């Protein structure tokens, strides 16, 4: 199925005022341990779902804030995280993004990540490269762990993973220049894709967290696998290790232990 990426990005841009609406961001519900959702999340999802329905009525829609049990991944599916970085949104940390992917029979075809605070629109088309505001992007060329800047994700909704996480963070920290944690998995992947960081890893991410970013990193020349170097399945939660391709093996040697 052919998708008009420019049209979809035009739709995505319309959510900006919603991200900047402090009143709606302060209307918070608890989903689980350390896990919140705001009216902004719901409104962004509704706006994108309605818009995509009008453009492509036959494509299924998976969104973080809805029940997705009926999605058939052998067919075409949109995968949306309306607000990736809700904790940041609640704290006005200004580091949240919309993440939207399109896949067909589990193959990613299009990935879009939009950062409304900086107006940065990242997108990638399978076989067509990765772009930031219309300019081609590439992963970094840093080729040693010692010189690398590595982003970590804490999987904040599963404290059972904390021991393993903090062991990995220490191992990686002792071998690289420094580590970063920005609170949005989608933006972390976008930053690997455009070379701001050299790698990023997180123990559990859901399809809407990583689908668009995975295609961005791959189309920008990097690699995305689980901690054992195995390919990811966009229909299920996954371990995610993304890297520039030059330090990927060294990183996996630490994480795969
Ligand atoms: C979360 C963010 C966070 C990451 C979590 C995600 P949410 O998404 O991407 O950075 O550490 O694993 O679940 O809940 O803000 O959409
Ligand atoms: Ca998310
Ligand atoms: Ca979210």
Give a brief rundown of this model:
With 257 residues, the chain is of the alpha+beta class.
Structural key phrases:
257 residues; alpha+beta; Fructose-1,6-Bisphosphatase, Chain A, domain 1; D-Maltodextrin-Binding Protein, domain 2; 2 domains; seven-stranded mixed β-sheet; five-stranded mixed β-sheet; 14 strands; 32% helix; 29% strand; binds D-MYO-inositol-1-phosphate; binds calcium ion; hydrolase
3D structure, described in words:
The protein is an alpha+beta fold and 257 residues long. The protein folds into two domains: 132 residues, Fructose-1,6-Bisphosphatase, Chain A, domain 1 (2-Layer Sandwich); 111 residues, D-Maltodextrin-Binding Protein, domain 2. 32% of the residues lie in helices and 29% in strands. The chain has a seven-stranded mixed β-sheet with strand order 3-4-5-6-7-8-9, sandwiched between helices. A five-stranded mixed β-sheet has the order 11-10-12-14-13, sandwiched between helices. It comes from Enterocloster hominis (ex Hitch et al. 2024). Keywords: Hydrolase, Magnesium, Metal-binding. Its cofactor is Mg(2+).
Chain-wise SSE layout:
Elements: H1 5-13, H2 16-19, H3 22-25, E1 28-32, E2 35-38, H4 39-55, E3 60-63, E4 76-84, H5 86-90, E5 97-104, E6 107-115, E7 120-125, E8 129-132, E9 135-136, E10 149-152, H6 162-173, E11 178-180, H7 185-193, E12 199-205, H8 207-219, E13 223-225, E14 238-243, H9 248-255
Parallel strand pairs: 3-4, 10-11, 10-12
Antiparallel strand pairs: 1-2, 4-5, 5-6, 6-7, 7-8, 8-9, 12-14, 13-14
Helix pairs in contact: 7-8
The structure holds D-MYO-inositol-1-phosphate and calcium ion (2 copies).
D-MYO-inositol-1-phosphate (IPD) binds at residues 81, 84-86, 153-156, 183-185, 202, 205, 209.
């Amino acid at each position: 199925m052919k998708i008009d990426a420019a049209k979809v990005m035009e739709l995505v841009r319309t959510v900006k005022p919603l991200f900047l609406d402090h009143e709606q961001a302060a209307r918070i519900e608890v989903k689980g341990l350390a896990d919140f959702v705001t009216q902004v999340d719901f409104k962004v999802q509704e706006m994108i779902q309605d818009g995509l329905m009008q453009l492509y009525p036959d494509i299924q829609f998976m969104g973080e804030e809805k029940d997705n049990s009926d999605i058939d991944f052998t067919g075409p599916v949109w995968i949306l995280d309306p607000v990736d970085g809700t904790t940041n949104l609640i704290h006005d940390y200004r580091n949240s993004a919309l993440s939207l992917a399109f896949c067909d029979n589990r193959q990613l075809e299009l990935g879009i990540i939009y950062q409304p605070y900086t107006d940065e629109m990242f997108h990638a088309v399978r076989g067509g490269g990765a772009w930031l505001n219309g300019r081609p992007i590439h992963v970094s060329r840093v080729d040693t762990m010692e010189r690398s800047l590595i982003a970590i994700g804490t999987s904040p909704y599963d404290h059972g993973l904390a021991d393993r996480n903090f062991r990995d963070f220490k191992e990686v920290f002792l071998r690289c220049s420094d580590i970063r944690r920005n609170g949005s998995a989608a933006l972390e992947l976008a930053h690997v894709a455009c070379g701001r960081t050299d790698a990023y890893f997180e123990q559990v991410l859901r399809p809407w967290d990583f689908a668009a970013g995975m295609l961005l990193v791959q189309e920008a020349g990097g690699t995305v696998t689980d901690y054992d170097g195995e390919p990811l399945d966009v229909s299920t939660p996954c371990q995610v290790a993304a890297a520039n391709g030059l330090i990927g093996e060294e990183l996996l040697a630490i994480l795969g232990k």
